[in-house]
Write a structure and sequence with these properties.
By secondary structure, the protein is α/β, with parallel strands linked by helices. It has 2 domains: about 170 residues, Rossmann fold (3-Layer(aba) Sandwich); about 200 residues, Up-down Bundle (Dehydroquinate synthase-like, alpha domain). The chain is built from 13 helices and 8 strands. The strands form 2 sheets. Strands 1-8-5-4-2-3 form a 6-stranded parallel β-sheet, with helices on both faces. Strands 6-7 form a two-stranded antiparallel ribbon.
């Protein structure tokens, strides 16, 4: 962060946070009268009654709804375009993303394409995207049932173009949700492994945003509290998913990390992961980040000494005298969450793929490299991949 920072703050999302807050969907003034509810292709939203609850609360608020339920864990452009066409045909005037980050991200992208012509990739900056300006978007409501992406309070959406093997983040003023309801009671059913993957995604949003060269005093406040909460409570939530206090603390940590995303930015660790899960879409984003994390943060330990030590202090509540304290705390956190022996090969990745990943990371999602504390070389990237591969 610059010694004399200059920054602006504009987060236009109304956030309603807390156990039972989903009830407000029945009484809150909403930005439309017919919603497309975007959910994943999985069964959890129906199995646990979350979809029915949202539909019923909307009815109480005199709002009609339809459901689009094809979203994949790594959402794809084809579904964005199909969802937008249905949205226009059915004359929906707002989007509701219900579920994990993939559903909310997809709702944001569909909201854009419901109001803009052409192809979604026409508006993407980076890779083969054309970078056209977005003229507007339908209003978005975010209702997360997982704690990880923080997309409920930031403008970002990450979509994969399967034809180009490109996974790229995008956001603009129109993709901030108008309303977000974060109810930890709707997160009690997340499986153990996914709880860990998602929680670490939030942790890296916060820690990356803290070491980014665009960090601000505001993002630092959000980041350090997110790091503290997630280090303390994510292992508890992983071990006991019914622990509502732990779920609420992790949910708040994730939302804070989303605020970091809205006021700072991720760094190149996310570029490296996007290159992996673009080629291997079965790889969970959080798992990829976990696998990369120790080798990645080791690379910058002498460039961010004070910031590493500060993160270590909020994590361990002990005085830190060396940046390696943060790396040791991170390794312990991974172990306590059962994430200390992830194998990228379990998702089909091969060691001979790694040189291709180096070029893909820079060509496809290289925007994150701009926010590194110093330039990262391709040789260093390859070494990170090699150290992370099992």
């Amino acid at each position: 962060m610059n010694t004399n920072p200059v920054f602006s703050l504009n987060i236009p999302t109304k956030l309603m946070f807390g156990c039972g807050e989903i009830k407000n969907l029945a009484t809150e003034q909403l930005p439309g009268k017919k919603a497309m509810i975007v959910i994943s292709a999985g069964s959890s939203m129906r199995k646990y009654g979350y979809l029915d609850k949202v539909i019923e609360l909307l009815k109480e608020n005199d709002v009609d709804s339809i459901v689009y339920d094809k979203i994949l864990p790594n959402p794809i452009k084809d579904h964005v375009m199909e969802g937008a066409a249905i949205c226009r045909e059915m004359k929906c005037d707002m989007l509701i993303g219900l579920g994990g980050g993939s559903s909310i991200d997809s709702a944001k992208a569909i909201a854009v394409m419901a109001c803009n012509d052409g192809d979604y990739w026409d508006y993407i900056h980076g890779g083969s995207g054309k970078g056209r300006p977005v003229k507007g978007a339908l209003p978005i409501i975010a209702i997360p049932t997982t704690a990880g992406t923080g997309t409920e309070v930031d403008p970002w959406t990450v979509i994969t173009n399967t034809e180009k093997t490109e996974k790229i983040g995008f956001g603009c003023q129109y993709t901030f949700p108008k309303l977000s309801i974060v109810d930890p009671e709707m997160m009690l059913t997340v499986p153990t492994q996914l709880t860990a993957y998602q929680g670490f995604d939030a942790f890296f949003h916060a820690s990356e945003g803290f070491i980014a060269n665009c960090a601000t005093p505001i993002s630092d406040l959000f980041a350090l509290e997110a790091v503290r909460l997630l280090y303390k409570y994510l292992p508890v939530a992983v071990k006991d998913g019914r622990n509502l206090k732990a779920r609420a603390k992790v949910a708040w940590g994730s939302t804070l990390a989303g605020l970091v995303e809205a006021t700072s930015c991720c760094v190149s660790q996310h570029s490296l992961e996007h290159a992996m899960s673009a080629k291997y879409p079965e790889l969970p984003h959080g798992a990829g980040l976990i696998a990369l994390s120790e080798a990645y943060f080791e690379t910058f330990k002498n460039d961010c000494m004070k910031r590493y030590m500060k993160m270590s202090e909020v994590m361990t509540q002990k005085k830190s005298n060396r940046p390696s304290d943060f790396l040791e705390a991170l390794a312990l956190m991974k172990k306590e969450c059962g994430m200390d022996n992830l194998k990228l090969s379990d998702w089909g990745m091969k060691e001979e793929d790694l040189p291709e990943m180096v070029s893909n990371a820079r060509d496809m999602a290289g925007g994150f490299y701009r926010f590194d504390v110093r330039p990262l070389t391709d040789e260093e990237v390859l070494e990170i991949y090699k150290k992370s591969y099992k």
